[in-house]
TrEMBL record:
<dbReference type="InterPro" id="IPR012328">
    <property type="entry name" value="Chalcone/stilbene_synt_C"/>
</dbReference>
<feature type="domain" description="Chalcone/stilbene synthase C-terminal">
    <location>
        <begin position="237"/>
        <end position="364"/>
    </location>
</feature>
<dbReference type="Pfam" id="PF00195">
    <property type="entry name" value="Chal_sti_synt_N"/>
</dbReference>
<comment type="similarity">
    <text>Belongs to the thiolase-like superfamily. Chalcone/stilbene synthases family.</text>
</comment>
<feature type="active site" description="Acyl-thioester intermediate">
    <location>
        <position position="159"/>
    </location>
</feature>
<protein>
    <submittedName>
        <fullName>Stilbene synthase</fullName>
    </submittedName>
</protein>
<dbReference type="GO" id="GO:0030639">
    <property type="term" value="P:polyketide biosynthetic process"/>
</dbReference>
<dbReference type="InterPro" id="IPR016039">
    <property type="entry name" value="Thiolase-like"/>
</dbReference>
<feature type="domain" description="Chalcone/stilbene synthase N-terminal">
    <location>
        <begin position="10"/>
        <end position="219"/>
    </location>
</feature>
<keyword id="KW-0808">Transferase</keyword>
<dbReference type="InterPro" id="IPR001099">
    <property type="entry name" value="Chalcone/stilbene_synt_N"/>
</dbReference>
<dbReference type="Pfam" id="PF02797">
    <property type="entry name" value="Chal_sti_synt_C"/>
</dbReference>
<dbReference type="InterPro" id="IPR011141">
    <property type="entry name" value="Polyketide_synthase_type-III"/>
</dbReference>
<dbReference type="GO" id="GO:0016747">
    <property type="term" value="F:acyltransferase activity, transferring groups other than amino-acyl groups"/>
</dbReference>
Amino acid sequence: MIDTMSPNISILGIGTALPSYRIEQDEVLDKLEEALQDSPNAVRWARRIFKQCGVATRYTCEPNLIAQGSRSRYLPSEGLDDIPSTAERMGIYKRESVLLALQAAKDALLDSELDGSQITHLITVSCTGQFLPGIDAVLVKEMDLSPRVQRIPLTFQGCAAGLKAIQLARTLVKGQSTARILIVCVELCTLHFQPSSDREALFGASFFGDGASACVIGNAEKNSKGLFQLGDGHSVLMPDCSEEMIWEVGNYGFDLYLSTNIPKLLGCYLTSELEALLDGEEAPSLWAIHPGGRGIVDIVQQMCELSDDQVQYSRSILHDYGNLSSATIMFVLKAMREDLVSRKAESSSGVAIAFGPGLTAELLKFTYLPSAILQERIIDHVHS
């Protein structure tokens, strides 16, 4: 698992942030049933997917979402007069995304024991909104980053983009050993809930939530709390799957289509990609799976013959926060690290996986190193 050329490229710190408004799954379903009382078939479909998607609570930046069904502009209604336009939703995104991004980024810097002046690259990730100058420019100003910091926005790439940013950061550090890279993902998925009784709209409304995450990546010089050391990885665009996950800009926010075939397709193509990633190595004990939905975690657990303990982090994040798009993978890694540290776990190998439109899969090997181990690895590398 260890890259002998750059043995210490690691996630140095992780931060997460959530908006103020909490969504209880049962309450949302009650509001939908009220709004859909004249559409019994839609009510039956909503009950089924809301109860089976593995989500109990989520968070939103938009208080109108948790208003009573007849007063929520994001839930099904008779007319289109009061539905929030894309422009209105982007105005909310511009305001709320910055607050969450700043909180997550500050927490990640604090966790990494670095300050803003040491950051050489800033990668910002989002697919749920855009404005210019963007979040990257705001972060430079508000966090006292160097005005010469290399800014790299990854926009509109879906759920896989958080792990893609981590892979990109590792590549950058391999080429510049002194680089310290701050990644910030912020997604306000609930802004795009559609007031429709269509199955696709209800499906998307059943498990997406809002949140932000951030991490700092660089060569580790110390390890006081346990680190994830980054190994090899790759990205793959699966064949003949471009119509299975679609995310387009509409007049009333972004329109999402998710095929029910996605878990099945992942089952067809993912085995060979994991074999290529591991290249004959034993299957790892740690699995950071992006919980794009309950069915995705189910299929990865089934095909890789994983225990319930091995997928507990992904399932718990989905249960407590829903799918936060690109931000989710860092929530999973943070929960995993906290558990490993609390249990005083030994060094363990792992794989992180995330999926996005295309269908795209991002796969990355990593190693958890307890606090006492890093210096031994540095010494061994120097002597070798």
